[in-house]
């Protein structure tokens, strides 16, 4: 058994020089040390944007960005990301001085460091992503990456397919500029209401409500069902689930991490 002094020296050296890259890859679930060494020598690993093919290279995973095949790696216990189904009459905040229900009332105190990536207005429902990964949150919310979002909107009044096509091809002029939908499809309708599925990249405040309000069809119910590759699925209103490693990898890829 190593002498305590020797162990202290080794720990100090690790803090000073970092951790061997193949060990970090193994901790992130890429297989045995030998397998991870092969991944490195095959030229599949980048550290801070630079290709690393030398075995024995040391890194600091808390400070450096490590990618395999272009995707950022995750150490198994580093971050948590949640998918939450926000009901109506819940604020997209973590606290409210007026005592109204917030996202904190849904997730409780188990994840004290998580925060929401984007918002839904007070009367809207559906998917909100939450995380304690600041880098991921910055990319998801930044307009540069334009993450695709899907909504199911119930409109007051009956619209035809020509209205949907016009919103995709021509768009509508709002106070803050022209906006087009990426996709618009009628799901159901009657004399009083029309249910449409819309997809768009814009994350502007109340954008779906403003689009349809501007053409005379107010939104009476709005549910966000998907953000990038993450779907609302079977999450009950007022509940949440932890995203899987595969979902995190897909979301990372969507926002260029």
TrEMBL record:
Signal peptide (UniProt feature, chain positions): none
Enzyme Commission numbers on file: 5.4.99.-
Coiled-coil residue windows: none
Sequence intervals crossing the membrane: none
Superkingdom of source: Bacteria
Zinc-finger keyword on record: no
Class of the enzyme per the UniProt entry, highest EC level: isomerase
SMART domains: S4 (SM00363)
Domain RNA-binding S4 span(s) in chain numbering: 19-79
Annotated keywords: Isomerase, RNA-binding
Similarity comment text for this entry: Belongs to the pseudouridine synthase RsuA family.
Protein's recorded name: Pseudouridine synthase
Organism, scientific name: Bifidobacterium polysaccharolyticum
């Amino acid at each position: 058994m190593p002498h305590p002094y020797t162990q202290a020296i080794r720990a100090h050296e690790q803090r000073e020089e970092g951790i061997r890259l193949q060990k970090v890859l193994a901790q992130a679930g890429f297989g045995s040390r030998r397998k991870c060494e092969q991944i490195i020598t095959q030229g599949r690993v980048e550290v801070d944007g630079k290709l690393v093919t030398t075995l024995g290279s040391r890194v600091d995973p808390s400070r450096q960005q490590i990618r395999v095949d272009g995707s950022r790696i995750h150490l198994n216990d580093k971050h948590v990301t949640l998918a939450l189904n926000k009901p109506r009459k819940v604020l997209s905040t973590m606290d409210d001085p007026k005592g109204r229900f917030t996202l904190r009332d849904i997730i409780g105190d188990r994840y004290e460091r998580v925060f929401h990536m984007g918002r839904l207005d007070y009367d809207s429902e559906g998917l909100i992503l939450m995380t304690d990964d600041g880098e991921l949150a910055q990319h998801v919310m930044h307009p540069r990456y334009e993450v695709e979002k899907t909504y199911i909107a119930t409109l007051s009044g009956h619209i035809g397919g020509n209205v949907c096509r016009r919103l995709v091809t021509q768009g509508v002029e709002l106070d803050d500029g022209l906006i087009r939908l990426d996709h618009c499809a009628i799901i159901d309708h009657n004399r009083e209401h029309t249910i449409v599925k819309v997809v768009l990249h814009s994350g502007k405040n109340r954008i779906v409500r403003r689009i349809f309000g501007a053409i005379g069809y107010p939104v009476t119910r709005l549910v966000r069902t998907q953000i990038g590759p993450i779907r609302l699925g079977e999450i009950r209103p007022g509940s949440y689930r932890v995203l899987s490693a595969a979902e995190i990898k897909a979301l990372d890829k969507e926002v260029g991490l």
